[in-house]
Rhodopsin domain-containing protein (Lasallia pustulata), 375 residues
Amino acid sequence: MGSSRAPPVFGKPKVSEHTLLGVVWSGLIITLCFFTFRIYVRVKSFRKLYVDDALILLAWLMILATAIIWQKLSGAMYRSLRVISGEVYPPPPNFVNDEQNFLRGSAAVLILFYSSLWAVKLSFLIFFRRLVRGVMIQKQLWWCVLAITVGSYLVCIGVTEYNCLLPSYAQIASHCAGLDAIRFQRTTLHLTCALDVITDGLIISIPISLLWKVEITVKQKVALAGIFSLAVITMTFAIVRVTVISILTQQPDVSWLYMWSFVEQTVAIIVVCLASFRALFTRESRHSAIPHGGTNLRKLFLPAAIRNNGQITTSISASGETETKSLATSSDESNMSFIPPDKVHVRHEINQFISPSDIEHGNTEVVEDHPRSRS
């Protein structure tokens, strides 16, 4: 008489326990290196840290907590998966306890996963907020993106199936093993992935839309656009994480899914560290207060004789009056004529100059250009 075996819910895990733990701890170490270098660059350049740095630290601590959870619960998860896949039968005596510990640990992992990703998103937003000061359209866009980002985080946390993770194993087995429950899991998986990708795209749109208005070289614009677009990598990993699920009548392969989830967390921290390195924003001196230079201003206000043969010097008297003197450089000084004061018109220009160093410091205030001399 052959022994009866339970039909497998899904196949053998695609990722071994050693592979999962290797990816987890390797990713943790790599992100620690990037975060440490980020802090070093910030402190060396600015002598202080910002709120976005604190958010990245929070995201890294969440990854650390996730790694600790997997170190403690990976054994229980793989023992449960071997039973559910039919590889081990009958279930060992500690199966129910292992399964319950794994499911409750999964609830914590999911909360940490979404929280760490959205901490990275908020870090990006706070970093970009320093760029949009004084630019009304981008400032309004920033607030809209912030509202959507916060709302999407609440949705991701809210749609998590806590009723299939936290109750007793008996309740979970009776309510969460049916086809409807599996379809709901797949639906929420696609929904959270869509929110993840959409919010990343919206966040990228803020600096990209502002970048082409900044007074820097085309080469720098292209380089910075590439840096800001690194978030596309995170979006790609979010899509890959979801596309690895199995057919409709089966549950997702949790080993494969959780490994890619951790990879996405790792990539998100690496990307946000790369995007804000101070070395990417080369220092340049601020533009001169007179945008067209001294020569062009002389052409605006002086007659041809002086433009060709003389020069103007300006001094400020003790009373604050501006005194203008002519220094002749031609032997024919008597032929030089001056414009009467009532015929002089001073042009007042306001130009906005934003250098790369201003971007990093968040100084995007309008600089007023005043003429240096009056006749």
Q: What stands out?
A: Residues 14 and 313 are 80 Å apart (CA to CA). DSSP finds twelve helices and four strands in the chain. The chain has one domain: 17-285.
